[in-house]
């Protein structure tokens, strides 16, 4: 019973974070800042949902596999974000910078 | 020695994924493990970098730090998205010094930067990392190099 409640709290929190990540992707001004919003769904949202599912599954092969999924996510998500950002910078997409940003003579 | 522990780990991994203990299936698992070890030996990919067994005892400590950073950064970015307490974004593109000595350390550092929402590592070179940060505070915090120090301290020091 307690485990059920706990897992539902985790699942709900993960779902809400996913929605917030979606709102962020919609609200942020350019490609690079949208990557940060997608980072929320990559990390904490995935962690909370997988934890909630793991509590439902109990100790066993299923929860072990869920943990493995999370570890794979931890390795692949930053690599994919980095590849996307790097490709965007190299193909000449300029980030919109804030007013107090130091100008970098990169391009 | 290294390939022997690699085979043992792979077989353990195979068992924990399959969960079957019939002789036929165990034999098939052994055969696939043997093939994998043979291929990786031929490709020469079992070394300190792709198979960092000597660091595995350090990882729990590092993961504690990583999760704390991820949760802190997530709260910051959520505040920016929802505009809590007047939090607003001011994206930054900065170059920060890269102090890790090994390639593995550099990759761990860059991936940790990208994993914490609010900062993405865009370009990597020998001495510097170019990062894109969502707020000035996040960029300033990375520029102090405290994350790099934590990684060196938690993973590479005895």
Please describe what this structure looks like.
Chain A has 107 residues and is an all-alpha fold. Chain A has one domain. Helices cover 78% and strands 0% of the residues of chain A. In chain A, helix 2 (31-57) runs antiparallel to helix 3. Chain A is elongated. Chain B has 158 residues and is mainly alpha-helical. In chain B, helix 1 (2-18) crosses helix 2, helix 3 runs antiparallel to helix 6 (146-156) and helix 4 packs across helix 6. Chain B is elongated, with a radius of gyration of 21 Å. Chain A binds chain B through residues 17, 20-21, 23-24, 27-30, 32-33, 35-37, 39-40, 42-44, 47, 61, 64-65, 74-75, 77-79, 81-82, 85-86, 89, 95-102, 104, 106, and chain B through 16-17, 19, 67, 70-71, 74, 77-78, 80-82, 89-95, 110-123, 130, 132, 134, 136.
Task: Draw up the topology in text.
The complex is a heterodimer of chains A (107) and B (158).
Chain A: H1 2-27, H2 31-57, H3 61-90
Helix pairs in contact in A: 1-2, 2-3
Chain B: H1 2-18, H2 23-43, H3 59-82, E1 92-97, H4 103-115, E2 119-124, E3 128-133, H5 136-143, H6 146-156
Antiparallel strand pairs in B: 1-3, 2-3
Number of E-type strands of chain B? 3
Which structural class do you get from the secondary structure elements of chain A? mainly alpha
How is the biggest beta sheet of chain A arranged? none
- Neighbour order of strands in the largest sheet of chain B: 1-3-2
């Amino acid at each position: 019973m307690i485990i059920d409640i706990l897992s539902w709290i985790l699942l709900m929190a993960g779902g809400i974070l996913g929605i917030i990540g979606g709102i962020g992707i919609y609200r942020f001004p350019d490609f690079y800042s949208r990557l940060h919003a997608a980072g929320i769904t990559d990390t904490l949202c995935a962690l909370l949902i997988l934890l909630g599912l793991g509590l439902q599954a109990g100790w066993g092969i299923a929860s072990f596999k869920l943990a493995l999924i999370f570890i794979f996510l931890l390795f692949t998500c930053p690599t994919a974000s980095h590849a996307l950002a790097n490709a965007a910078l190299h193909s000449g997409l300029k980030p919109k910078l804030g007013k107090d940003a130091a100008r970098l003579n990169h391009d | 020695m290294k390939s022997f522990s690699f085979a043992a780990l792979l077989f353990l991994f195979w068992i924990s994924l399959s969960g079957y203990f019939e002789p036929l299936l165990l034999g098939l698992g052994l055969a696939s493990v043997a093939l994998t070890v043979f291929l990786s030996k031929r490709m020469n990919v079992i070394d300190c970098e792709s198979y960092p067994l000597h660091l595995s005892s350090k990882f729990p400590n590092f993961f504690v730090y990583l999760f704390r950073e991820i949760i802190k950064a997530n709260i910051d970015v959520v505040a920016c998205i929802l505009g809590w307490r007047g939090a607003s974004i001011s994206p930054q593109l900065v170059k920060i010094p890269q102090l890790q000595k090994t390639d593995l350390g550099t990759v761990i550092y860059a991936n940790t930067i990208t994993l914490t929402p609010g900062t993405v590592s865009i370009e990597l070179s020998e001495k510097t990392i170019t990062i894109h940060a969502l707020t000035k505070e996040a960029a300033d915090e990375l520029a102090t190099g405290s994350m790099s120090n934590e990684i060196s301290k938690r993973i590479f020091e005895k």
